[in-house]
Amino acid sequence: xxxxxxxxxxNASGCARVYRNDSxxxxxxxxxxxxxxxxxxxxxxxxxxxxxxxxxxxxxPLLLASATSCVAPPAAKPTAxxxxxxxxxxxxxxxxxxxxxxxxxxxxxxPGRSVFEKRTTEIPAIQGAAFGIRYRIVGSPGxxxxxxxxxxxxxxxxxxxxxxxxxxxxxxxxxDDGVVDQKFLYLLREPYEVVPGDWSLAVAIDGTTAIxxxxxxxxxxxx
Length: 223
Description:
This protein has 223 residues and is mainly beta.
């Protein structure tokens, strides 16, 4: 027996939920095209019989009824967009983290104050030049997301003789507000990193590439 149905609530996806005792969900219906069903249900808020409630749901056109469970709508997949790109002026201090999969054997992180000075895809092939992208991911608050940053470049020979063409860094983040706002930067720190040609910086979310930006490292002009 249902003691009292006290209200019907509908969210943006069209899921109407019938509540009792102001907290317990006893039924869910999918209402896609018939806005009158909510008004119809509201006229029955004092019903005390589960049988009558079920009969009402089954008799309403274009409804899918379930009187045994309430299933929340699936969380939206995170989306990503690029905010900025180009030549960057790094602002430290920068902390080093050992990572043998990178060209230098480590990666750096900083306070996020580096500045995009010029929006361009052409980067001078000089030691000390820095470039990159800034991107934003919007997902569900408190839901973990796997973010992988991928650098692809022409063959680069490290001091130990190994040749690399790709560098990957993967992080698992759980933003409280569902938003990840990051800068993905590359510094041509060492002479062997200054490799002219096509470079790309890509960001993958949960294993799927969401952003990719190409840059051309251009040899310095000879006077």
